[in-house]
Amino acid sequence: MTTIKRKALSLQEKIEILKVFDTKSQTTNQTQLAAELNLPVSTLRTIIKKRGEIKEKYKLGSAQRKKHKVGKFDKLEKVLVEWIHQTRALKLPINGPIICEKARIIANGLKITDFNASSGWIDRFKNRNGIVYRQNKNGESPEAQQTVDTWMSTLPEMVQNYEPRDIFNADEFGLFFKLMPDKFHDFEGDTCHDGRASRERLTVLACANCDGSEKLRLLVIGKAKKPPSLNNVRSLPVTYDAQSRAWMTDVRFNYWLKALDDQVQTKNRQIILFIDNCPAHPKSIELKNIKLVHIPPNATSQLQPMNLGIIKVLKQGYRTRLIHRYLQESEEPASERPFTVHDAILNLAASWEAVKPETIQKCFATAGLSNNVVDEVEEEPEILHAFPGYSSIDDNVAPYEIQSIEHLIENFKTKNEDLSDDDQDEDVSTPVLSSAQALSAINYLRRYVSSLDHSEDALQKLNCVENFVIARPTKSISQTKISDYFNTCMYLPKVKYST
Fold this sequence. Notes:
Blueprint: H1 11-24, H2 30-36, H3 41-49, H4 51-59, H5 74-89, H6 96-109, H7 119-129, H8 142-159, E1 167-176, H9 195-199, E2 201-209, E3 219-222, E4 239-242, H10 250-266, E5 271-275, E6 290-294, H11 300-303, H12 310-331, H13 341-354, H14 357-366, H15 405-414, H16 435-450, H17 456-471
């Protein structure tokens, strides 16, 4: 019997072997297949056994690597990788000398005395973690393109067992929620770590599925547990939570993720959820009905549907509503009043509802998650042309805390969660309107809507709202909900405040 010589195989070669195995496993046993591939049977069995681990490493873009050893300074490198992910999120430059300097600081913080940030170490570190920072003339690194190509080649297998309605993507964004168009130049380039901008920021988590049939309720994170403007509010069209600096944190994201897992479990569904490598996102978490997949960290701008236009359209809708408010107050100074967290929440919900399924489908297709061909949709609202840069003013605002090296080291040791406070900033309470005032407002709206073409549906919805208001004095809150008056899927869930 001829002995087959063992040889080191790259990740690319192992992936190709797995593809052959998947194709022939029903007709060919492992011994025969190993002979066809000129491999020892034990090598083939090991590759099959470690399928999941191989694919995870392959997705990181280091497809030609043959050995995957943990570095001598594993703890140091874990902290350093977290710092690099943060820096990339802010689109700040990274190079070898910067990485070496940060590595020395981390080594000192972890009391590692025998570390030397040599050129050999940094080459091995980059190779182990798929770190690239060389750029071509277009600002994209060739290695990043390799990551995209590698990822695209594995996507079909990842989603082959899921219907489009069960393929989801979630992502966060920062929002200067009360920034009016006459003031936005004051905030250009602000990444919002502190100062005035941080006091006017919300973090928003958006999640939708591939065919656009499900836009999950937005998660909005503010600074106050219960802002004054929500004091008299019993229902919100979003989920509201609070953190002392309005950041997304790992605790809050995990809570949201577990709640989603419970929700899909009750419907007996299995979904796949794609997320980026935000520090607040878990590297591992036990879920029953959700397969969690991390998008490669150096290519999210090309691979994440939310980044490919969904969030952009949502923010354009939000800014358009603020412009209309600004114009109204310019024409009618008497109508001017402070813009509150409650106003922002209502604007966000309306803007999210207005994002078309076709827009979502197109962005998922661009990310390689769908084969649907969708025409160009959702052009920028014309009114935004008068304020260039306004809708994208907060594109670089990080939705999570940008931590110093010292904080990253401390978090690595303790993993402590900051507590929320009751910072209310300039938010003001919303006065409770009487039924008479509400009915009067509805009548004003009805008169205006009646003057417009094709307004039948809007008038019908106003009638539903009027019926709801009229019924309130005679029925208890628990007996009557506004959704009872709509034949459509309008949904106003009760708000749950964080404690």
